């Protein structure tokens, strides 16, 4: 496997039963490609320490709202974690080591910090991947509350989630049950990588965007849109044979895609130059 060492660790972590995937480790292996000197154990230990300090403050009767308030007080009031509204698309917001060091991030990475702490204090929570935003909720039957880790741990109800989505899309949105379903670890990691992919594409950093796509394809091999995007990036950096292979694979899977005519023309052009 001709991968950087960090990606080999990532591959090993995600290629086990879903319930065994350690999200924090996998996220740190994503970060390790960008920060080669990163020691994952240092940040896993930091999460352990944070959980231990919260555990000392837990109420004697650990009702969900009381536990959430305890976590919120520690993370946001004492440590000063906050959502990065000032520079939302800074790639550092998507790397767990940087989020822990800088105490700021985007919804999904702040949710990851929250989830990891909750797991360590035996307070089960799950990620909720709403479109345009990411929330978490206690994993108890009929609990009916959601936590917005990006906004100081604000507690939301389903109606609040609808309002939040309506604000994002600037039109009324009705929440369907599927929008509030828990995300699996692989989907969680894929969403983190999709954020990095879009950030690096917008910056014109093709190699880093390519690295994000490659890891998405490790999570979900053969995904047509990712094969297409990887093919387009290969074309952009002059790797024509690889570009042709990915783009042809895309067309084989979705021959009637809206962009199929453009992709066929591009493949024909590439073949003339091979």
Automatic annotation (TrEMBL):
The keyword Cell inner membrane does not apply. The keyword DNA-binding does not apply. TPR repeats lie at residues 190-223. InterPro entries: SirB1_N, TPR-like_helical_dom_sf, TPR_rpt. It holds the Pfam family Transglut_core2. It comes from the Bacteria. Keywords: TPR repeat. Residues 42-193 form the Protein SirB1 N-terminal domain. Belongs to the UPF0162 family. This is SirB1 family protein.
């Amino acid at each position: 496997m001709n991968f950087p060492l960090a990606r080999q660790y990532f591959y090993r972590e995600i290629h086990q039963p879903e319930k065994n995937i350690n999200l924090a480790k996998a996220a740190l292996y994503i970060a390790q490609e960008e920060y080669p000197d990163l020691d994952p154990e240092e940040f896993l230990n930091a999460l352990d320490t944070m959980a231990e300090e919260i555990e000392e403050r837990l109420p004697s009767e650990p009702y969900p709202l009381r536990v959430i308030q305890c976590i919120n007080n520690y993370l946001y009031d004492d440590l000063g974690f906050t959502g990065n509204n000032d520079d939302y698309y800074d790639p550092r917001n998507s790397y767990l080591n940087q989020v822990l060091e800088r105490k700021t991030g985007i919804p999904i990475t702040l949710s990851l910090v929250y989830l990891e702490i909750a797991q360590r204090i035996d307070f089960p929570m799950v990620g909720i991947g709403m479109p345009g935003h990411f929330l978490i909720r206690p994993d108890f039957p009929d609990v009916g509350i959601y936590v917005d880790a990006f906004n100081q741990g604000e507690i939301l109800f389903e109606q609040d989630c609808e309002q939040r989505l309506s604000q994002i899309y600037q039109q009324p949105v009705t929440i369907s049950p599927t929008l509030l379903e828990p995300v699996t670890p692989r989907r969680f990691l894929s969403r983190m990588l999709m954020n990095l992919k879009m950030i690096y594409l917008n910056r014109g950093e093709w190699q880093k965007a390519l690295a994000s796509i490659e890891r998405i394809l490790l999570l979900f091999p053969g995904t047509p849109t990712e094969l297409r995007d990887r093919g387009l990036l290969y074309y952009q950096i002059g790797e024509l044979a690889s570009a042709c292979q990915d783009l042809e694979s895309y067309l084989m899977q979705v021959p009637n895609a809206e962009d199929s005519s453009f992709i066929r023309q591009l493949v024909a052009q590439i073949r003339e130059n091979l």
